[in-house]
Amino acid sequence: MPKQRPKVLEQHITAQSHFFKVEALHLEFSNGERRVYERLTGGQAGAVMVVPVTADGQLLLVREYAAATERYELSFPKGAIDAGETAQQAANRELQEEIGFAAEKWQLLKEVTVAPSFFGGVMQIFVADELYPSRLLGDEPEPLIVESIPIEQALSLIDRPEFSEARTIAALYLFHQWWQNRG
């Protein structure tokens, strides 16, 4: 049986940066307990991640610097949904900016969250198929390195230390399941 949602007694911004705001939520639960939760807000349009599949059965990934881990990470193309874009339009734009391809066929695999107790952002994960060359200028500070791996070897990415981002791992498993079940 679903519980009654807590009552929001107060909410206000406690800190902010160029990308995020920290919001304090003063909540009262149905049993009378009160708590203050903090959550990150920002990027309300959401984000996308794309698993690009080439005609010869390769998955394309990008290697780019991640400031939080202070190393180069290997992941699928991803980025924010800009104002006025649909998720699929954002996915196609990110694909062109990061790996120099666009796609004719799209499949939404799943919408995922990360740490939903603290961050409300959602990411939609797509498969992009029937790729064709198309490049858009992106906002990356340096050229991204594009790597490919045969679909049959894709799960071996799990063993690579630079393939560690949870959403990318989720995308890999979602893709693998979809690929095995496609008709």
Automatic annotation (TrEMBL):
GO molecular function, one term: hydrolase activity
Annotated ranges, domain Nudix hydrolase: 43-173
Keywords annotated in UniProt: Hydrolase
SUPFAM superfamilies: Nudix
Family: Belongs to the Nudix hydrolase family.
EC number(s) given by UniProt: 3.6.1.-
Cofactor: Mg(2+)
Stated name of the protein: ADP compounds hydrolase NudE
Coiled coil: none
Top EC class for this record: hydrolase
Domain of life: Bacteria
